[in-house]
Design brief:
This protein is mostly helical and 412 residues long. It has helices at residues 5-20, 37-51, 55-68, 72-89, 92-105, 110-126, 130-142, 148-160, 164-180, 187-199, 203-216, 220-233, 238-250, 257-269, 273-286, 294-323, 326-338, 342-355, 360-374, 377-385, 391-409. Helix 5 (92-105) packs antiparallel against helix 6 and helix 17 runs antiparallel to helix 18.
Length: 412
């Protein structure tokens, strides 16, 4: 999973941009306070340094001004200049301190206070004070102010402090704000969300954000890393893992010897010898496996007669399914599915579901996959969308992303 630094850097840049644009604002309400003439002259000196690009000198002079400010208006003005100078220098701690000065002056309006506290919380998150980050940004949210940067910071803080529900809500808000701006969501944002779900040991969140990323960035490397990361985070059953390796094969994202061997082993474990052999054959033809490798050669020799036998048994299994119960129909459907006979498999999955007495989520998921692989994208989408509970819903969700991508390329 990606480390936190990239997203934090992005958040830092965003916060700096916000603070740099703050400028020397007019206090939010009329105040009876006056400003000492000597203080005003010093203030103008800081402004001149900023205008000349001397942010280092401006920050030093602003710090001195803060120490000499006696009136609330003076504190407000000195804090604003300190904020601008520190932002120009990339000094997060000084920015955070300047915000305290501005807020403590009492001169900011209610709306400006909410905005400044959101920025303060974002900076606190970057500085590692996540408790303060949550307090500041929650306050701003409660006052009706939120930004992409503050919500990303809030998500990071809440996930880190073991509040994944609050973290997920903040991520949703950040992504919604980004969409409202009509700006694309960068792949690194999804990566950060996935990493937070992974760290929180929430495979459901890993799956959710991985699927969202794949819907936008459906490259073969992304499919592979997304599915592998999900499998590493979740305690999936062999059937579910097998269907996700099948998806990797469908998206041309199996890219290593290890992948092909894992796919073949899962297929063999579930009794689909023909598919297990086909996985090894494809691995060899792709160059990821070597037919001369002793272990591969031995496994191919073992699977060859089993694969031939499995294919020869297909007509009998199909005939038995017509008069048998739901379990017999499901067995035949799985066998046809493993042989890539997807239309026949779809018919048998429907029969199994009609007869009952089976794992309906598994059968419905595979019905959706079989229909999708057969080219019936609309039927496949409907079947996959109907699986809404349990781990099979996650498997169906991954396949739904692929179904949607195919529908975009091949509208029906």
């Amino acid at each position: 999973m990606r480390r936190n630094s990239q997203m934090r850097l992005r958040m830092t840049g965003c916060a700096m941009a916000i603070t740099a644009m703050a400028g020397l604002a007019t206090p939010g309400h009329a105040a009876p306070y006056t400003m000492d003439e000597a203080f005003r002259a010093s203030l103008e000196g800081v402004q001149a340094s900023l205008a000349q690009g001397d942010t280092t000198g401006a920050q030093q002079r602003a710090q001195t001004l803060i120490g000499s400010a006696n009136q609330p208006l003076e504190k407000y003005a000195a804090g604003e200049l300190m904020l601008q100078a520190a932002a120009g220098n990339g000094d997060l701690r000084a920015q955070r301190s300047a915000l305290n000065t501005i807020l403590e002056s009492g001169q900011a309006s209610a709306s400006e206070t909410a905005r400044l506290r959101a920025i303060a919380g974002t900076l606190s998150a970057m500085l590692g004070d996540r408790k303060d980050a949550i307090a500041q940004i929650d306050y701003a949210n409660g006052q009706g102010y939120s930004s992409v940067a503050s919500q990303l910071a809030l998500a990071d803080a809440k996930f880190t402090r073991n509040d994944p529900v609050g973290g997920e809500k903040a991520l949703d808000e950040a992504f919604a704000l980004r969409a409202k701006e009509q700006k694309p969501i960068e792949a690194s944002w999804y990566d950060r969300a996935i990493a937070l779900g992974y760290k929180a040991k929430r495979p459901d969140l890993v799956a959710r954000w991985t699927q969202a990323k794949l819907a936008t960035y459906p490259s073969a490397p992304n499919w592979r890393s997304g599915i592998v990361n999900y499998l590493n985070s979740a305690n999936t059953e062999p059937d579910q893992s097998l269907d996700l390796y099948r998806l990797m094969a469908a998206t041309d994202s199996i890219a290593s010897e290890r992948d092909w061997l894992a796919y073949s082993a899962l297929a063999a474990q579930k009794g689909t010898a023909a598919e297990a052999k086909a996985a090894l054959d494809t691995g060899v033809s792709s160059g990821n496996l070597s037919a001369s490798d002793p272990a591969t050669a031995k496994e191919l020799a073992t699977l060859k007669p089993k694969a031939a036998k499995a294919l020869a048994e297909l007509p009998g299994l199909t005939a038995k399914a017509k008069s048998g119960n739901g379990a017999a129909a499901l067995t035949a459907a799985d066998a046809q599915f493993a042989a890539a006979a997807y239309p026949a498999a779809a018919e048998l999955y429907r029969a199994a579901l009609s007869k009952g007495g089976i794992d309906a989520n598994r059968a419905t998921t595979r019905l959706g996959i079989a229909l999708t692989r057969s080219g019936d994208l609309a039927g496949g989408k409907t079947a996959l969308a109907s699986v809404t509970q349990g781990p099979w819903a996650t498997v169906a969700g991954f396949w739904s992303v692929w179904n949607d991508r195919k529908a975009i390329r091949n509208p029906q």
